[in-house]
Amino acid sequence: MNEELKFLEHMNRIARIGKENGGKITRGEIEKELSFSLNEAQWEVMGEFLFSRQVRLEGYEPTNAVEKPEYVFDQDELNFMRYYEADIRDIPRISDEKMEELLKKVVRGQMEASEAYQAILPKIYEEAKSYADGREPLGDLVQEANLSIFTWLTGIQSETGLMEDFRKEISLAIGGLLAEGEDRDQESHKLVDKLNQLVEAVEALKAQNAAYTIEDISEFLDISIPEIERLLKIAGE
C-alpha cells in the first residue's frame, strides 16, 4: 500500500481520536499520529475534514462558522493600516459635499482625474475599510477600491449622483473580490467532500480485504485514478 493511501487511514484514525476526546483534537495529537508536519494549506483541509466529522481542531475556525458581529483587524492588517495611514496623513480630509464639488470639476474638465484621485484617497480608504470582515486582507480591499475608483474617475461624464456612484463602484469592486474568495471556499468544501468519500472507501475496502490498491478505490467510487491521485497529492504530500 503506498504512502498516500496510508494517509487516508491516518485521517480516519485522527477523526476517531477526536471523537474519543469529546469531539476535539489538537495539532500536537495529529502530528503525533502522522509523524510528519503539515503546511498551512493542508491544516485548512484537515480542519474542514474534521469539522465535517463533528470534530473541532483546536485553534481552527470552520469557514461556515457564525461570524462575530464586530470584525477585529488582525496584526497584518493593523500593520498595513499604520503604514497606509502614514502615507495619506498629509491629504486633507473632506466632506461628502466638498468631494462632490471636486468630482464635478473632473466632469467639467477643470481638474485632472489623477489629481482628484490623490485628493480622495482617504475617502476611498475609509470606504474600503468598512468592508473588512476577514474574508480578504484589508490591503487587498484597499488596492481593489483604489484601482476601481481611478478607472471610474477617467470616465465619469455626469454631474448627478456622483457620491452614490462612487460608493457603488467600490461596492462592486470589493464585492467581486469577495465573491472570488467565496468561490475558492466552495472549491475547498468540494475537496473535503471528496476526501470524505475516499476515507469511507478505504474503510469499506479494508473491511472486505486487507490488501487494496488505488485501482480498487477508483472502481469502488467510480472516480478516475488521475482524480484520486490529484486529491491525495493535495491532502497528503
Salient structural properties:
2 strands, 2% strand, 11 helices, 237 residues, mainly alpha
Explain what you see.
The chain has eleven helices and two strands. Helix 8 (138-153) packs across helix 9. 69% of the residues lie in helices and 2% in strands. With 237 residues, it is mostly helical. The mean pLDDT is 79.
Give a short summary of the structure.
This protein has helices at 3-20, 27-34, 40-52, 75-87, 96-108, 113-119, 121-129, 138-153, 162-208, 214-221, 225-236, and strands spanning 24-25, 56-57. By secondary structure, the chain is mostly helical.
Q: Any chance you could write out the topology, listing elements then pairs?
A:
Elements: H1 3-20, E1 24-25, H2 27-34, H3 40-52, E2 56-57, H4 75-87, H5 96-108, H6 113-119, H7 121-129, H8 138-153, H9 162-208, H10 214-221, H11 225-236
Parallel strand pairs: 1-2
Helix pairs in contact: 1-2, 1-9, 1-11, 3-9, 6-8, 7-8, 8-9, 9-10, 9-11
The proportion of residues forming helix, as a percent range, comes to 55-70%
* Rg (CA only): 25 Å
Mean pLDDT: 79
Structural class: mainly alpha
- Regions with little confidence, pLDDT below 50 for 5+ residues: none
Strand residue content: under 5%
Overall, the morphology is elongated
